[in-house]
Amino acid sequence: MRNLAPFILLLLVVAVLLRVDFFFTVIYFLVAVVVLSRLWAGRAAGRLRAERRFVPRAFTGDTLTVELAVRNEGWLPVPWLEINESVPVQLQTVPFGRQVVSLGPRERHACPYTLACRRRGYYPLGPVHLRTGDLLGLARRDLTGAAPDHLIVYPRIVPIHRPDLPTRSPLVALSARSSLFEDPSRLMGVRDYQRGDSPRRVHWPATARAARLVVKQYQPAVARETLLCLDLDPEGYDPERRAEATELAIVAAASLAHHVSTREGLPVGLLTAARDPLADGRREFILPPRAGGAALIALLEILARVEVAPAEGGGFVTLVRRARALLPWGATVIVVTGATDPALREALLGLRRHGCAVLLLVVGPGGGSDGADTADAAVAAPVWRIRTEADLERGR
User: Fold this and answer.
1) Closest CA to 237 of 307, 154, 158
2) How far apart are CA 199 and CA 221, in angstroms?
3) More exposed terminus of the chain, fewer Cβ within 10 Å: N or C?
4) How do residues 307-345 score in pLDDT, each as one tens digit?
């Protein structure tokens, strides 16, 4: 249309000088075409809507299908529409090629594509860019269809067959979720009488109302809590294998959290400091131990987003020292790092003196001969040396 304006102006000058009616007719026709094209393209573009439907959460290794749809909500047809979706390279199975379609009144066009979740992360999808215009290309409109959405890819979960997590809680000896010690001052409810129950536990008023024997059920006095301390300071890992080692550390933390929360049904928390794309910088993550699926999902979402970031202040050792304020006596602290130093050993010794059981995971390729447990004499704590996911799966 920019090239057409000088041409119309030139025709107008010629028509005025020569006073030829045909030139005036051509000018009227061209001006009408330009005006109608702009009106048509503007009205049609204003009635275009784009939407994106997909499952916003997945695990590493999953494949997702995203349905991108563009709909013409107006009564004017769209002669041509160019669709271009922004997709992260890490998720692409094949590049999203630009599509050019035409839409009739109230017509909808779907553009499905597939995502391969090869690596954990927090990925933006979109925005989708739309371009339309008239048949002659005199008027074009560029617009953004659907706002960006985000996909969370959780870390890989490795099944741990024999974790043997250390603890000072008496509950670890039980295969069931019942407790060895109960607080008789904290009545939790009643249950049906079972053979072997003490007569002192019979709740006589409830028995009379229910017309059957029921006994009192008390809340446990001691419950094991587990806190994962994840080191994401770059200084804690070998520079040559840092990316691989930190990813393995995150997989280890996610797998242990899943095991404690799902298999054992016990509270689990997270303590780490890393770069967060939502915060646009380094921040601390402090999740006190909580039980249940919602707490586990919140923990996994953090592990999906975090990235290695330079330490600030005292770094990871300072975080480990602060863990004592979050935990009661008998809790378990699992420290996942790439290397140990005297300052970290001193912090772990302080946790043991506080009454916590400590497990140290040293992550990194070449970090051991067979992945078996050893003992750190300085803190009297078991050490798992994890070189691969297979070492983590064996548990010790």
Assistant:
1) 307
2) 21
3) N
4) 998 887 778 998 898 888 888 888 899 999 998 888 888
